[in-house]
Amino acid sequence: MTEKTKRWLKLGVVAIIILGLAIFGWQRYASKDKDNNIVSGNGRIEAVEIDIAAKTAGRIEDIFIREGDFVTAGQTVAKIDTTVLHSQLRVAEAELQQALSTVAQRKVTLDSAQRQNERFQALIKGGVISIKAAEDATTAVNSAVAALSGAVSAVKATRANIERIQAEIDDCTLKSPRDGRVQYIVARPGEVVGGGARVLNMVDLSDVYMTFFLPTAEAGKIVLNSEVRLVMDAAPMYVIPANVSFIADVAQFTPKTVETKVEREKLMFKVRASIPSELLKKHILQVKTGLPGMAYVRLDPTAPWPAHLQERLP
To answer: Residue 1's pLDDT is what?
Structure first.
């Protein structure tokens, strides 16, 4: 066998291997996208973000969690110093005691004025006292009633002030409104924050979804609650079930971070696929946001999912 023949034989073998690999790759990957019943788009896992902020200005006394910690609803995550508020509370409580004492005095004055008025009204019928004296007694009763009413109003106002101060003290204990994971802490113990200032940020792991984009022709074929399968780049062995929970009513250019430059020139519709809350609760410690992956939407709900998109969970 000549050298030329050997060379051509080697080239033929290489060509056959390349052709075989191409056919294998097409059968494994391209054929998956050939199913006209499935449309797909790439995106990232996201979750609803929650800012936990101070309602009133103050100095942060302590932070009880760390970034990355999983927290439950109602768990105390931070506390703001309440020294000034407790001083205001003690002053308000002293004012309340004074107001209650004033009310007691006004009641005594009113009782005395009413008794005197009753005597004068009886005496005026017998002509023992003048009409002027009886009218003065009635006026004294009216004045005592007004004074008592003012004292009672002062008590109500002081109690309302105490409730307000106590509510501000309670608000200085910052609690997690939902189950979730702490993303980052903005302020640290010893720092002074203003009213409404963010102290930390967390993600609500009961509301997790993937946002992806589909061309007009494909977006027009799907409906809300359509079944979706999510496959993460980091864990391609798992197929996560989801449902379409949002379809934009206006087309837009796809963000640069999602598609290639050529595809960004097309108008796309934003679609959101939400993972069922029951599934999230079951695997809540494994849920991670920011992971990229693919979303596959089934157009015909009666058609079965392809084998490679059958639900597979940890």
So the answer is: 56
Collapsing DSSP to helix, strand or coil, 12 comes out as helix
Q: Kindly state whether residues 184 and 139 are assigned to the same domain.
A: no
Q: Report the pLDDT value the prediction gives residue 88, as an integer from 0 to 100.
A: 94
Residues 6+ apart with CB under 8 A from 58: 80, 81, 82, 84, 172, 192, 193
pLDDT beyond 60 at 27: no
Residue 275 lies in a domain: yes
Domain range holding 71? 51-82+173-200
Q: Are residues 75 and 180 in the same domain?
A: yes
* CA-closest candidate to residue 308, choices 18, 43, 40, 42: 40
Asked whether residue 184 falls in the same domain as residue 67, the answer is yes
DSSP H or E segment with residue 192: strand 192-193
Return the residue matching tokens 């097409």: 26
For 135-171, the pLDDT digits (tens) are: 777 888 888 889 889 999 999 999 999 999 999 999 9
Q: Are residues 136 and 178 in the same domain?
A: no
